[in-house]
Amino acid sequence: EDGKPIFQHEALGPDGLAEVGVEIQSGQTYINKCVPTNATESVVGGQPTINQQQQHRETPVNYRAPVPSVVDQ
């Protein structure tokens, strides 16, 4: 409620990637992304529907090493 992100998201920038130079600890997310749930379906050769609603699910990548690390590039 104070405008700060939760511990797990503290290293993330506005683009969903950890900022360069930030120290991350075990359990923190360094890539926060969403992928389509129908990723196995192919639209090649098919006609996409105009009002088709895509379903997405969050698939974050979390740092799991026992010692902290610094994000580089």
TrEMBL record:
Gene Ontology MF terms: DNA-directed RNA polymerase activity
UniProt region (Disordered), positions on chain: 46-73
The protein's name in its UniProt record: Uncharacterized protein
